[in-house]
What does this fold into?
Amino acid sequence: MRSTRTAVLAAAVSAIAVTAAHADTIKMAFIDPLSGAMASSGEPALQSFMLAAEHINANGGVNGDDIEIVPYDNKVSPKESLVQLQKAIDSGARYILQGNGSSVASAIIEAVSKHNARNPGEEVLFFNYAAVTPAFTNEACSFWHFRFDAHTDMKMNAITDWVAKRDDIKKVYIIGQDYVHGEAVAAAAVAQLKEKRPDIEIVGNELHPLAKVKDFTPYVQKIISSGADAVITGNWGQDMTLLVKAAADAGQKIPYLTFYGGSNGAVAALGEGAIDTLYQVSEGVTNLDASPEQYAMIEEYKQRFPQYDYYYDRAFTTLEMFDAAAEKAGSVEPIAVAKAMEGLEVQAAYGPATMRAEDHQLQQNLFVTTVAKDQKYGVDNTDLGWRLVDGGAISAEAASTPTTCKMERPE
Amino acid sequence: METVVFALLNGVIYGLLLFMLSSGLTLIFSMMGVLNFAHASFYMLGAYFAYTLMEGSNFWIALFIAPVLVGLAGMVVERYGLRKVHARGHVAELLFTFGLAYLIDEVVKIFWGRTAVNYKVPELLDFPLFTLYGAQYPAYRIFILLVAILMLVALWYLLRRTRAGLIIQAALTHPHMVGHLGHNVPMIFMMVFGAGCALAGLAGVIGGNYFITDPAMAVQMGPIVFVVVVVGGLGSLEGAFIAAMLIGLLQTSAVSINASLADIFGFLGLAGTSEVGGITIASMAPMLPFLLLVLVLMVRPTGLMGDREV
It folds into this structure.
């Protein structure tokens, strides 16, 4: 009896040893909200990364190794994120994926820098796919941080260029979430509008609590009584959906210029009221011209995750770029990958994407889109989809902004 | 003017919804002397039950069935949970409801997922009822108002004008005497607990689709409901009503005030450019109920209408 038990134990131990010896998976920790109010932003991002990883693995992996995406729920709390980050690093993850919430990203950048300073040889890289506070690739830039989304000033440039061309817009209302991101959006909007259209009056500049407001009706009524012709917002997740829902209920028919109008549920909340009132600026939408492979990917995504739509194109770009950098470096060691990634260019679904070496800010095309009927792909299970507005395609060069980053690099 | 009208309208609706939630809690408190931490969880259950019922039937059926189901769940909790724990004193009861809140949270996440469900306003009521100062007012909000007023009247009638209400009121204050008179007091307690939960469930049914139905709704609503009950005075229905309306109006009207602290306290030398002076009343809206709680407890520890200390 005893010998059988020993044998079983020995077998189990050797099985573990064999797996460990192979070490053929690259663990990437995905730290973002997977429960609560903002999970509708975290979940589709996780699915996008998983799908992207599957495709890379199926095509031979990264230098032969497989990517494994390990999800950690941070409930959009910076404090919780640091706990999850430590857990992730302890379990062997050397790459961190995060995007929802600049407050969280800022905490992770700091923690990763500290970790890397204290643990030479065990460095960790942070791939930020959505936290857009400009500081991260400007005054607060870090060698360990790479951003795959256009930052606030870049996106706001696209929005204010559009506003500048519309002479019928005389009064603008700015509403955002009360944290570093909302503040950055408001500051960018005020500064850029002043420069491009000094005649525009900013009739409201308001911040509301993040992920706490259940009923935006009082805010929308404030917007209506201010007489605004357009609203600019950087809201995301539930705050985006509920804001436009309240606007729709109040019968408001003015343009909402958003960063994240593509948030799950926003179009469904507005219904046909979204046509020519909801605008977003993003790195791509499904109805742009693309390769057959991209269309196949969009369809596979919808089939696998019917609750959501293909939205996080930058998740695919992130992993594609990681794959290319690891191949170029001939290694999956973070420092080698980071150095290989600097200046690297890949062909993303909607144009070339280059990782600028001096600040680790991805340079990519941006598109201003709005909602229309009878598009190739609908969203939120409606017949409404995103279409490009006239002159809405902005090249990577035009979207680019200079950086003030002075980066400290490891040897 | 329009700001005042909208703030009043929205504030009253929000206040009535809060009252619907807290009336059950305050009834249960007067009865058992224990705060039910899981009360907001029954509100969440109401919304989720209605969502599921709506898939198979329609909103109107869900409107009646879901609160009944929540009430039944409440009765089961009282009969097989709280009553057993009751013998071990108030602390045990408190801990029991505390644990129950977490349990319901997790169960909801397992059954309905971690993200919000698409619990929609019924199409019949999904239209703008009237236009006021250029803004349309959705019919569903007025529906919430009507249901809440109906409930309010029914509750008042039941407690103040019927024999059953008489016995309940007596059982709340003098349970032993009522028991000696031949009434089944444990049964009354169970019914009251069930009814309190059903009211919370009803609030969930009509509030869940207007706001949002997700697993966090109980946690977010919980603290406000306690504020209502404590400010109103533990165990006092009238107090809960006043407090609910007060908080509803306070929160919604605060959002529409653009003034900053510097505008109000400027005469004390507070500058608009300073850190504190730049805070607007609107951004303080979520904090106001808790400020009210602290102030009321300092000035009147029994709450507005209560007769016992917290």
In short: Residues 47 and 204 of chain B are 4 Å apart (CA to CA). Strands of chain B lie at 128-132, 135-138. Chain B is about 70% helix and 5% strand. Chain B has one domain: 2-299.
